[in-house]
Amino acid sequence: MTGAPPRSAPSGERSGDRSGGESGERLSPLAERLLAGIGDPSLPGLEADFRRLGHLGDEELGALLPAVYLTGDYPLRSLFEQVIAERQVRFSPPACARMFDVLERDPRSFGFLELGAGALLRCTGPWPDGLARPAETLVRHWLGSDEARQGIPFALLTVAALAGPRRYRKVARLAAGQGPLARAELDLLKGWDVTGHALLAETVQTRWAHRWAPLPDGWRRLADHGYAAFGRSVLEQARDRVEAIQDGRIPYEADKAFTAGEVATLGRAARVALMADEPWLPELLDRLLRGVAVAPTAARTLPSQALLYELARAGQDFPTPELATSLRTVRTIARHAAVPKQLDKMLKKIEAALADRADVALRLPGLGFGADGVLLTPLGEHEAVVTAGEKVELSWRGPGSRPLRSVPAAVRRDHAAEVKDLRALVKRAGAHLTTLARALESGFPGEHAMPYGEWRARLGAHPLAGTMARRLIWEVETAPGEWRAGLPTAPDAPFALLDAAGEALPVPGEDAPIRLWHPIRATPAEVRAWRDVMTGRHIRQPFKQAFREIYLLTPAERETGVYSNRFAAHILHYRRLFALFRARGWKSRMLGPWDGGGEDTAYRTFASGTWRAAFHHEYVPALDERELATTDQVRLARREDGGWRDAPLAEAPAVVFSEAMRDVDLFVGVTSIAADPDWQDRGEDLHLAYWRDTTFGELTASAEVRRDALARILPRTRIAERCSLEGRYLVVRGDLRTYRIHLGSANILMEPDDSYLCIVSARGKGPGTVFLPFEDERLALILSKAFLLAADTAITDETILRQIERGA
């Protein structure tokens, strides 16, 4: 290489008309006061102004940031960094020059290369002259530091390119990629301009990278810079390498198939291809994932655990249903004990992210299924039947279509390969449907609608997806602002949408919008009607819809305005809470007995990232092995001008508010110590008053839904005459005593003295074949306890009998 990459500024971006201020930039009065306060912290009113930091414009933040770093005030810097981590900060050319000047003044304190490289990408106009000098200082300092011994980061190459050809050549000679794929990436980079260098540096997660919110078009610009073709090449080389390991051409070493540098390169390549939804990618990634997840020997190790997880992380950034399906398959074949659990966590994030790529999420292959969701495969005199319904199941028929209980011996003997393929097909189809269900549910808050013609082709009449669509309620816009709900007909009938009374809706036009029905938009009578349909026809939906909890704004929440105390002051099992945060797609720091581990706010975005819910909670130091947390406010914020602004709860779309509160209700209901039947038996009074008040307290929305379901289920059971619903309890009349099962906690009081009956899990006969319209562990537990207690004279468990007989 003979010189530095050519300099280039972002094209098509305007500098804008600026006036006023020393730098020629126009600042708002708030920004002017904050700029003055950064230089003179004694000015009056600064505390209130700094609380409004989020109200600054993106370019105003860029104008103030150099002054913040110049002060060396770490708390002030941290305050600004919290804001810019969520904003698309922009620098005018003068602000960009000041940023580099500040970094040059004391590179030992804040010569953070990412700040300089990031400022270049966020400059609103041509880069200012004179950046080579501060860039030279930054590079020289870095090369003389201990950091240089740990490798040459892309940000350093970016700043070196800005410093000039001589400096770039020296730094480039020191950059030695780990492994051939990483070295190929460096060779690619040497032919790029400074902007290309900065774009690649932007993708690297370092200890300073949190300072910038990701560029919304960063990956697209990187792909357009020439990375797309390179990415396909290295992914193909990686696939070929793992296949060579699998067939023995390359000796196997656990977790040594790829270097750390190569894993990072392949992660970038995968993201670029996933972002573009390249048609060649699904098959390639499927083969690559299978190759890195299982050793070619019987060992429980794998060729590259690091690459497996990096590709899954790429799927969290740019999810596709095919990648999710491949990861589910890998989960079942991996022998390493920790892999399935880790992939489960990552898959939940991928499924949640799919809701924001609706055009991609609804893409399912037919896999050979018929319109009725059945695939028939003749094998000699027998026939394999794969049926997609609530589950995807494989069954067998003999001559004359006679049902068989298991694989016929002749089929097992003569068609072993076909049986293996069919079982793999069952897993694959099930994985596709699971991904689809979770993507559809995650998309609820966005109220996504699609043209009816497209919906029918991709979902309603699709051979595989249709088996799920027929168990969900959809609503179509029949006139502007008017929606009618319907359930798709069975596959053996002409395709139509039937309302809750069984009447066909008018056939929609091909372009008529159709979306999932949500009970928050329906009247109570409509909700009751659809619940009757589900229980009457024994339709178990893939996720709660007809029986979905809804949360309406309360008078107290209208009064408080921007926050809700509905779920405040609860005491929760912290580790369970943190696990649920991750499972439901909320982001939160782990809390604990360390500095800074006392409190946090968990966040989750809704409606394609336009709304964000915040749930504040605090850590309670454990007296023994238990770790607890207390709850506080729930707030909602709206995305505006690239940042988050607290919004009045009343301004949030009803479905966004309801879904956010539903998550928080789940956190409290599942992890509260009130749901712990053993809590009062711990021999201490710790939080016992809370336990008593909450475990038998007012019903939450989820408990109300449980009550409604029981009202429909119980009359169909053999214990119907012994049961009644009274307020917040299911009352069960046994022969020894009468019992009241709380519909929220499932805990039990015994009449006549309201003594507590502790049953950790129901023993004996459960509800058997009782149909439940949705999956709910608490509902199943309540029914199991009801069946047990209705026949209390048949109980043989002494720990239960002693409690019953004590007060009988």
TrEMBL record:
Pfam families: DUF4132 (PF13569), DUF7737 (PF24879). Residues 14-25 have a biased composition (Basic and acidic residues). Residues 1-26 are annotated as: Disordered. Residues 703-804 form the DUF7737 domain. Residues 402-586 form the DUF4132 domain. InterPro entries: DUF4132, DUF7737. This is DUF4132 domain-containing protein. It comes from Actinomadura viridis.
